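SEQUENCE-TO-STRUCTURE ENTRY
===========================
What this section holds: a protein sequence and its matching fold, both as plain text.
Tokens: labelled as protein backbone structure tokens, with as many entries as the chain has residues.
Question of interest: how does this chain fold, as expressed in backbone structure tokens?
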Amino acid sequence: MVIFRALGPFEAISDGETLDLGGQRQQAVLARLLVAGGRAVPVSALIDELWPGEPPAQALSTIQGYVSRLRRALEPGRAPREEAGILVSAPPGYALRAGVEDVDSWHFEHLVKSDHDGPAATLERMETALGLWRGPALAGFQELMWAQAEAMRLDELRLLAVERRADAALRLGRTGALIPDLEAHASAHPLREEAWRLLALALYRAGRQGDALGALRRAREALRDELGLDLGPTLQRLEQDILAQAGHLDAPEAGPASGVSPGARVAPAVPDTPRGTEPARAGARALRVLIADDQALVRTGLKVILDSEPGLDLVGEAENGEQAIALVRDTRPDVVLMDIQMPRLDGLAAARRILAAEAPPKVIMMTTFGTDENLYAALRAGVSGFVLKTSAPEQLIAAVRAAVAGDALLDPAVTTHLISAFAGRRDPSAPEGLSDADVDLIKLVARGFTNRQIAMTLDVPEGEVAGDVTALLRALGLVDRAQLVVLAYERGLVSPGTPGA
């Protein structure tokens, strides 16, 4: 069986292996047939769309050659004179014969448009549909008009699926975990009144009446600024009902979680778990990660990385420091990936406020340059590390896991800049009241050693090292391991020439 994927880079897969579909134009022929939804596409249309304006004299034979090679790739075991079963001749052209569930875009559209039996079934279908997305639809053919039109149509269906999923979850009484997703959805698509309705209703049911009215004010501003219109009748009625605290707005009693696919983003908030504890066994809860960056492209890339890593759960996205603070309060993440430069409230100010709260999450700062002037101030504020936005995905994942485990991870480019700031210090001066063993431990932490590496170096149990580091932080009035790095360089306990530093 061949599976066709169009919700992202276009590809065909057979028995778990990606098929070689040839060059860009040859792939475009198959993608165009897929977009037709099983209907025949005339050869003349294929020629006009592949070579707009002046097609070559051999265009017809070229198309026929493409089709022949595609058939061999899709059905390698077919006998030479046996009729094709997937890419078939359908005068005056060709058609793609495949089952609805064999093409992700067909399956997606079927799920979104199907009638559903109640909110639980709707929620399950929308989760399944949205789970098929791997990126912008038909990502390899953006320059072709038919692909652009199809991508826009499918993306509109995706937005509808997001809103239908949220509406179903609200009808089931599942509110709190919806808010970050709806906040991001409404901010990204400010002219969609349904997005604002769902966000305002979710906020109201979460006991945040003021924030619900604030969301509707933002909707009104967006519509007036962009279109010169006021809120539509539905949002106006909702605003009046919120002001009157109308009884019909109250959340229904939350239903059971059955019928929701694993990984659903509408699951209830997890119970409190001590921070700094990483899941160590199968079945342990995933680490909850929040992204804060003003660039949508960066957030999308980070989301792809996190979604592909087992044990990590993206719980929200913010585009400025103010949103990050609010989402931390609402979602209680374990780790925040925070851009250091953001509008309205920058990452450094937001990190300070987040880390000043009771039982704060770990905060990892992201920066474009290792020479950012705010690096030192952020470490003093208690962030758990730095990564460059250009870092490899495994570096980002390592930073998240290191932060939760109590380690500090600094990108080498960032570390080099920080070290240079202390290059002139020569006179060690350890804080008063610390033993020689404490000073040795600070030096090892400053050199980037993990608890396991320190345990191997000192020949002591790893658990003992973790306890000693915690006691040392408490004695020095520090909140995070990374601050020990700052202290070591400030006091001259580690210098740029120290091995391993």
